[in-house]
Specification:
34% of the residues lie in helices and 22% in strands. The protein is α/β, with parallel strands linked by helices and 304 residues long. The chain folds into two domains: 1-52, no CATH class; 54-142 and 204-302, P-loop containing nucleotide triphosphate hydrolases (Rossmann fold, 3-Layer(aba) Sandwich). The protein has a seven-stranded mixed beta sheet, with helices on both faces. The protein has a four-stranded antiparallel beta sheet with strand order 5-4-7-8, covered by helices on one side. Helix 5 (148-154) runs parallel beside helix 7 (206-219) and helix 6 crosses helix 7 (206-219). It starts with a helix and ends with a helix. The chain binds adenosine-5'-triphosphate and magnesium ion (MG).
């Protein structure tokens, strides 16, 4: 009964949550108590209990197909501000596609993306970036022939010298440039790259390039950062450091993170909320330690 009460009420399900719960109880399966679990083929009608917090990022009914294959088939998501959220799911389950949709790189076929109260569904990548929703990439996308410092400087939006009108007027932009330099140094310290400030980004290690991506996102005054596999291919020590940095930034700067990451042994020690994709939908979400015990996660993700 306790866990049944927290389920989302849905219409039209061939096996509604409560019945499903009864079955699971009858079968003696352990069902974590603070999860939202969704059957794979239904749309929620009423989100009733517990009260749903209007998140900084809300997705409703997001669909995207490639050829005849629906990679995203009705994604609903409400991301609470100021927390670290993680998106998990097996290879090819559509995590990067979802980040591409949210960040404006590709348009969904159906559905709506609302960020910080603004409908951004039809906005392109740059317009989305300007709302304060910034992404990093599964394969880092730094400017290879620029130094670390230069990569940081070009990520800032606040330089009036970039305008054709003001470019010849040095007094107009000198102050901006000094402020951006100061900020770049502050962010480089934050992500441990100050010593690498004059190194071409192509000569940074894989882990340092991930840090560069994070630093560039921070240079942009992001309200929320979407990160696609920030510790893939990074050694465990640096991987922990990266997640510690992210947690620090999340807490101190109140930036919301949605992180796609496969290395659960590391990431789950840091994140506060986990969502799992399967069959183009969010299958289960909730507290990390409970999500990981969910039978569908064990079966679909861990393969046991
Ligand atoms: N632009 C595209 N055109 C055609 N198919 C695509 C395109 N982008 C992604 N796909 C397909 O969509 C599916 C989901 O891909 P996606 O990269 O989103 O998965 P993922 O969950 O990020 O996987 P991984 O964990 O391996 O990074 C895959 O089958 C992929 O081949
Ligand atoms: Mg991916």
């Amino acid at each position: 009964m306790l866990w049944a009460g927290i389920y989302v009420i849905r219409m039209g399900s061939s096996m509604c949550k409560h019945v499903q719960g009864g079955l699971n109880s009858a079968l003696g399966r352990h069902i974590p108590t603070n999860l939202r679990h969704y059957s794979t083929n239904r749309k929620p009608l009423i989100l009733s209990f517990p009260p749903i917090i209007m998140g900084i990022l809300s997705l409703s009914g997001i669909k995207k197909h490639f050829g005849g294959f629906w990679v995203l088939d009705g994604i609903d998501m409400d991301i609470e501000a100021g927390k670290m959220h993680q998106l998990i799911g097996s290879n090819g389950s559509g995590k990067t596609t979802l980040i591409n949709v949210v960040s404006g790189l590709i348009k969904p076929d159906e559905g709506k993306v609302v960020f910080d109260g603004v409908d951004i569904t039809q906005k392109g990548p740059y317009e989305t970036f300007k709302t304060g929703l910034v992404r990093t990439w599964q394969i880092p996308q730094a400017f290879k022939n620029l130094t670390t410092m230069e990569n940081f400087l070009v990520s800032s939006e606040n330089n009036s010298g970039e305008s054709y009108l003001y470019a010849p007027l040095k007094p107009k932009w000198k102050g901006d440039e000094e402020k951006i330099m100061d900020k770049a140094i502050e962010v480089m310290k934050m992500v441990n790259l100050l010593e690498k400030r004059d190194i071409l980004s192509q000569n940074l290690s894989g882990g340092q390039q991930k840090l560069l991506e994070l630093g560039r996102a921070l240079m942009s005054d992001a309200k929320m950062i979407l990160m696609d596999e920030p510790i893939a291919g990074v050694n465990p020590t640096l991987a922990h450091e990266i997640f510690e940095m992210i947690r620090d930034i999340c807490v101190k700067q109140k930036i919301t993170f949605l992180i796609v990451e496969h290395r659960l042994d590391i990431s789950l020690q840091y994140v506060e909320h986990v969502l799992m994709t399967a069959n183009g939908k969010i299958l289960v979400e909730g507290d990390p330690q409970e999500v990981i015990k969910h039978p569908n996660v064990v079966e679909s993700y861990l393969g046991e």
